[in-house]
Design goal:
133 residues, mainly alpha, Arc Repressor Mutant, subunit A, 2 domains, 74% helix, elongated
Length: 133
């Protein structure tokens, strides 16, 4: 399924907030992403049509099984792509976040997975070196 950068941001935000809080409201997403509540409401309508978010999002925002599966897959790769831009290219956290989102949505999934794997191995090697010292 192809999603745009904005939808990706929302999907990942909801997924991560779900891990932190039991109940997520639109205002929580707005605060997390730095957007207005009407923007969140508009995106929730779109994500409901895509079957990524449950229709009763006004009460509590919940991912559907489809949305949760997609977010879980994205989350793992996102962490590694973000680490690449932050650690390797030494971008600020905000810049690394922006570049990671764009990379994940603009490049083929296979390319994203390859970069994520390279970063996983790099981080693992770095940790092994530190542990052996």
């Amino acid at each position: 399924m192809e999603i745009c950068t904005g939808q990706y941001r929302y999907l990942l935000s909801i997924y991560r907030l779900t891990a932190e809080k039991r109940r997520i409201r639109c205002v929580d997403i707005a605060e997390d992403l730095g957007v207005s509540r009407p923007s969140v409401s508009n995106m929730m309508k779109c994500m409901v049509r895509m079957e990524l978010v449950e229709p009763d999002y006004c009460e509590c925002v919940r991912l559907t099984a489809k949305g949760s599966e997609l977010a879980k897959k994205f989350n793992s790769n996102y962490d590694m792509v973000y680490a690449f831009f932050r650690r390797m290219l030494r971008l600020t956290p905000a810049q690394a976040k922006e570049h990671a989102f764009r990379f994940m949505t603009d490049f083929p999934e296979e390319t994203v997975q390859k970069l994520a794997e390279v970063m996983r191995k790099s981080i693992e090697n770095h940790q092994n070196k530190q542990n052996s010292q």
